Amino acid sequence: MISVIIPVYKVESYLPECIDSILRQTYRDLEILLIDDGSPDRCGEICDKYAGIDARIRVFHTENKGLSAARNLGLREAKGEYIGFVDSDDWIEPDMYEILLRRLKETGTDISACGVWNECPESKHVYSVCDKVFIGPEATRALVCNLTNAVWNKLYRKECWAGISFPEKHIYEDNATIYKVVLRTESLSCVPDPLYHYRMREGSTVHTNSMDYLIDYWVSIYDRYSYLRLRPEFKDDREFIEQMEKQIASAAVRVWKWIDRIPKEQRDYGFLHRVSEFMQNHYPLFGARNWYLSLRVGAFFTRYASEVSIFVLHIVMSFHRLYSGLRYRKKTLYPSI
Predict the structure, then answer these.
(1) 260: which residues sit within 8 A by CB, 6+ positions away?
(2) Residue 256 falls inside a structural domain
(3) Which residue range is the domain that position 16 belongs to?
(4) Is the domain of 193 the same as that of 76?
(5) What kind and span of H or E run contains 115?
(6) Domain ends where: 177, 206, 235?
(7) Do the domain assignments include residue 322?
(8) What is the rounded distance in angstroms from the CA atom of residue 35 to the CA atom of residue 23?
(9) CA 214, CA 221: separation in Å to the nearest integer?
(10) What is the average pLDDT score of the chain?
């Protein structure tokens, strides 16, 4: 049996489509755990209605504690041999779990992953994955370098999650958790089919401009790097370590892209100093005044930072010009207030 864990909060317009897509699965041996995370809208009522329609649905009503707490509750209550996650504003293809389970059994791996449809308001595009099996350290390398770090486009054997939980009261919980699961199991298989539909909408948790989000996003990537680079199987893998460092730099671009939208009194300047110090230590060209070195910095971000556009590069270089003198005097990009 597959236990599908669905945290539910303020998605009454999308929830029926999500639940219906799971009820239509060609693989029928499911239990569906709807975790109503104290949603203030009609989500709790919708969950109860569906529970009365299909006996495979179990509903849990809790006070609002966040996505991580809801998922952790689902992990504790799950009775299936396999675990799946679906976000309550997303939906899945009818044969997603049948295909992922078949892949697990055929390969003997502990985790299977599929491609994703990124559903934007005006368009959609496919996030593809390779048709391949990864064993040993290669599984972790593949996750970090080539696959989405989300938990929801994957199927897991339940024992993969023994002793592992999502960090509560944090926003970017997937990035802080999934690599630990893959590192433990050391087996991951992929099917290229895009079977999960990820809805990219304004107002969702990961598209909220807040200081907490920026901190959790960057720190989750930095902490993963700090942990993995000291592991015996990775500490001499310079190519992998450099790839993780580039991801931290890419996350720094997102910080600079959104920091101007956060009022000064809400900014965490200690965190911004930390981001600046990492960049200065790992990329000495960062903030250089010489035009040629500045061009090299721009080329670096264009090549390696996934969030970069001409607009973002303009913001980054504006920060360089604005604070370059202060940086060389105080060894920091951001002044204390």
Answers:
(1) 315
(2) yes
(3) 2-206
(4) yes
(5) strand 111-119
(6) 206
(7) yes
(8) 16
(9) 11
(10) 84
